[in-house]
Predict the 3D structure of the following.
Amino acid sequence: MQLSDRVTGGVLVILGGLAAWSGSRLPAVPGQDVGPAAFPMLIGSGLVICGALIAFGIGRSFEVPEEDATEAAAPRFHGLRALIPPALLLFYMLASEPLGFLLTAAIIVLIGAVALGARLTLAVPLALAAPALVHLAFYKLLRVPLPDGVLPAPW
């Protein structure tokens, strides 16, 4: 059974709206600019926008048409790609303390990007920039310490 994009997009809009509304009801933390409401409202707003885009079919022209099953057989271990995200999460749990956040996240982003089909010319700069930006947001904006490991952050 397949659901139409309008139904799926509508469900995402409703879930995003509920997340943003629930997040807005969280109490502020005295003395902090960013409180516990920031992430639920950000995620909820993103879900509402993405759901609306899906429901209205925006971006459908950018999709690659599916190949016929008889034209090209799937690679031998193609189905095992679904195990990559849980394996990367397990890797983060085991390696973040000894290696540190920056190095562990860079490895995760690089492997994840390549597994999803990105070229190395995109995956390597992304693996260098994304962990630094995430660490900077957690350290400066949220004041949440992340493990330093062998490569401490310069800030």
